[in-house]
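FAQ
Q: What does a multi-component entry look like?
A: The components come first, one per line:
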Amino acid sequence: MSLHWWHVAISYALVLGGFAALTGTAALRHAQARRVLARLETRKRA
Amino acid sequence: MSNAPSLAARPAASLHRFANPGRFLRLSGRLLPWLAASAGLVLAVGLPWALWFSPPDWQQGETVRIMYLHVPMAWLAMGGYAGLAVASAMALVWRHPLADLAARELSPVGAAVTALCLATGSLWGKPMWGTWWVWDARLTSVLVLFFLWLGHAALVRAFDDPERGARMGAILALVGALNLPVVKFSVEWWNTLHQPASLTRVNAPALHVDILYPLLTCAVGFTLAFAAVVLLRVRAAVMERRIRALQMAAARRAETDG
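Then the predicted structure of the entire assembly, as tokens:
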């Protein structure tokens, strides 16, 4: 693999990895908030 | 005199309809799957097109493929900051509670795309210019933009009173918006190593359609992905605020009962 392709590959890995990390952490936080909120609202109604 | 609301009050009233957390969660919950699916679909077309099916540049060779990432990241860094300034103005002028939350959740994502813009620019610059970094006006003003994003993210979280933090962050975002024209026109105002604009010129774009179309496809895909991530974070923040309110109410009840 030429040096140019190395730079291209690292760029794609960085951007796709960066977006995957942003999406993953946001999705985990969202799922946890939804779980806790559902539990608290059920307890409030009971 | 007419009883109609003033021009300034009308947009505020219509925007405040979305300040209701239940309504926001319902509407954004319907929008989010479409946003995420369209981002995935557009990027599934755009990325292979950019990486394998678009032609190499006659001067830059294969390295031109970094442009399909670098340019969308640069547009998102600047467009996102313009969005942050608008949300901050809405928060300051109309005290819109969701605008505060949106600004707070936007800045870490904005900082991330600006860092990706700088990193991909550096990876593109080394084989083309022979250096990872130069202190020219474009690169330096984008670095300032990155520090503004980071500064906003840190400032809104630095106060015990979240409202005060949001107000300080909004002021920083509005003052920092002065940097946006500097970033945009730096390549025209100063002599820079960075090339001038190829696409957003007043006359025709300087790019051939074989390069222009995959670039626009990637830009649309990353914009949709950016919007989906920010919306997901704002939804999480709205739910966390509701959780804190419920926990406070429960603690107060327990104190009164005890």
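Q: Is there any commentary attached?
A: Sometimes. For this entry: The two ends of chain A are 64 Å apart (CA to CA).
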